[in-house]
Amino acid sequence: xxxxxxxxxxxxxxxxxxxxxxxxxxxxxxxxxxxxxxxxxxxxxxxxxxxxxxxxxxxxxxxxxxxxxxxxxxxxxxxxxxxxxxxxxxxxxxxxxxxxxxxxxxxxxxxxxxxxxxxxxxxxxxxxxxxxxxxxxxxxxxxxxxxxxxxxxxxxxxxxxxxxxxxxxxxxxxxxxxxxxxxxxxxxxxxxxxxxxxxxxxxxxxxxxxxxxxxxxxxxxxxxxxxxxxxxxxxxxxxxxxxxxxxxxxxxxxxxxxxxxxxxxxxxxxxxxxxxxxxxxxxxxxxxxxxxxxxxxxxxxxxxxxxxxxxxxxxxxxxxxxxxxxxxxxxxx
Length: 333
What we know:
There is one protein chain. The radius of gyration is 19 Å and the shape is globular. The protein starts with a helix and ends with a helix. With 333 residues, the chain is of the alpha+beta class. It has one domain (3-330): Beta-lactamase. The chain has helices at residues 3-16, 26-40, 72-84, 107-111, 121-131, 134-144, 147-156, 168-174, 189-198, 201-211, 221-232, 240-251, 314-330; strands spanning 43-50, 56-59, 65-66, 93-97, 116-120, 162-163, 218-219, 269-276, 279-280, 283-294, 300-310.
């Protein structure tokens, strides 16, 4: 069987399986979520959706939270939509130069040799969606026409509470009121970090406070759950093999294993995408995780967690998200 046929078969099994009923004990969820939010020392948004009967429960579900790298999942979908439209091929080479490097996490940049290299489109998708590579994500957005293309895809699919507005090279400095990097500029991360450290704390904290209320590059938990539900049903892409391609990448990701995944039972298949912002002056911009959980007994549900403005350390933030996953499983009827 060819690789394409194997992917298609996996997608059909993933999409067509009839999950067991997964409604929620809402009273239990309502009682416990307040304690988890207090322990998180920030603003916690959660949404849970049963994938059979669309039963939804949320906490701060209509509030807006910064997405950080969560956006890379809808980005991957938008790229594959253009593949299906004939604008790209998965094996199409995309030329990358050192001038294209973005800020922060980028395995591509760390392993880059020479001045320019070609990467197949499928590898850039894997790097962005699976390894949260900022350089790969920025390049993919540039290739498809910009962040607004991803937002337009979401709107066309009926998702109004998610918005992708800036490249990583723009977004990350602007969180702190600094000038973002244009595509005609080489990103100097060391200079950026030095400028950030040199800011007066009052200005840094004020800019971050404004960014936490920014509706750009942000989402509501309930809209994120709706996006994931449509992904689980295969609604975003015509070819089931393309859905399976993304699902495999995000299920095998090693990032964020101490967040939601840590609170799910052993043997759970979890297709997810995380997001993480900087911590400055003791305040973390965002610690996020959203995904589709398939439990060993076949029950399937969407789980979305956004944690913004937390004063907890990384271990405490991740533990809070894991606690949400444990609560969700324990509240299944």
